[in-house]
Amino acid sequence: MSSYKVLLVEDEIPARTVFRHMIEGHSDMFALVGEAEDGLEGLELFLQHKPHMIVTDITMPGMNGLEMLHEIEQSGEGMPQMIILTCHKDFHYAQQAIQLKAAAYLIKDDCLSDPELLPRTMEGLARQAVSLDESREKQLLLEQKVRSNEMEIEQSTFLDMLRSSDAEAQWLQSLEAARIPVARGNFHVLLLELDRSSLRFSIDQQEELKLWQFAGVNVLRELLSARGANKVIALDKGRFFAIYAPEGNSSQGEVLLEQIIQSFTAYLKMNPLALEFRIEQGMGERLTELKKLVTAAYPFFYPSNGITSRSAWAEMVTFQHIPENYSRLWVKILKQALLEPLRSAAALEQERNSFFRQAKEQRWDPEQIKSLYLRVFLDISQFMAESEEFVELEAAFRKKLEQCQTFHAVHETTFLFFRNLQKLQGDVKAIDASISRMIQKMYEDLSYPYKLEELAESINYSVPYFSSMFKKTTGESFVQYLTRLRVEKAKLLLLTTDQKTFEIAESIGFENYRSFNRIFKRETGLTPSDYRRVQSE
């Protein structure tokens, strides 16, 4: 069987060396055709050598072992036999391994303590021929179904409780049966959600998400089992709910949260948002608030990765409308922060923290916070010359902003996309701060009769230099830009107010109606009155 080709994929050099020696020690049976240090290199070697068997680690930088096997499955090539090596002792990835029809799943420490374990496993698989025996495949599929059904049953019971008060008693009884004294004793509640910015797939890819949630449930069960009786439930959109009754010292909440975050980061390569709630003397009337918390759209927008007091539950899912005066104020402050190229990092951080504190204290609506940042971005983009790249950037920003789960993610995403917006201008310093402040003033008050010479003098620029910097910043001349702003504002007023056309002309800075009428028709092809009539038909 010397022609039985084997590919080894392992990122750690010492471990790869040991496994290589194990395989080469049985050269009468196996031919090691290649070694790879990550999944991408392993995929390339597979396509090149077409090995009969792959021995692979899971956790590797870049493309991990399971991702590599998934790519091989999608390649259309014949599937090799697969042996998966891992350091994880609770088979966190077993569901995915089964899904990919892995032939064996070995713990690295077991292989090191028994040097013949890996060769013995390889020999047994090699003697079965390339294809899996049908009875073994049926057994693996059955195991997959049992594991999957267990998670789905827990999920279904919990969702029934959320939807109907009639199912509450049954759910509480099931927890009591699991030795979690929710009716009268002390217990803890955990709410987790995968940070979508750390995912390597779309949250809407249900099959992919289900596999990773299975792994997440196992990580949580392993950690909570050391604390006491527990139940862990995978919800939709990458969210997890867990409840446990701590045994002994119950003051280790911060340590537990740290362990959970580290475990998700190390094993799943994903960052979680987490909150823990301590409940004393039974659930009582808190069940209604718990249901609101679990189903809330933004439980982590202001608090995350900490222990929250029982009294804070109701506040966490109750948000307030942002008063218009505060909205205008923070739009102005954030614009200035973005447009000031010399603003220090410390000053920017101070403004972010000030906004965060006020928003958190007032419990401002997360959707309105997102809309405020979007408004800032779009207002500033008015200064930019529009292009296909800008349209794509704006679409990407809207999508990314929609996915943000925390206040800080919204802020950082906006600043990141603004830097990308600057790069589209070809020069990070392309936006002159004085010009930007002038444009912002024009944008907010079009009634003033702006003159090129007057504006240039007000910031100590010569008229030619002012004109040059203005066009570099906006992509248009001063006259073109001001005319466009006024015409766009006139369109809005014609459609949304009953003001007469001469009143609109005066409100947007035209000195006489005839001039307004002539310019509006030149820009739109219609007189203001005709535009209002046509658009209202």
TrEMBL record:
Transmembrane segments: none annotated. Pfam families: HTH_18, Response_reg. Its main location: cytoplasm. Residues 5-123 form the Response regulatory domain. The keyword Cytoplasm applies. GO terms for molecular function: DNA-binding transcription factor activity; sequence-specific DNA binding. The modification 4-aspartylphosphate is found at D57. This is DNA-binding response regulator. It comes from Paenibacillus oryzisoli. The lineage of its organism: Bacteria, Bacillati, Bacillota, Bacilli, Bacillales.
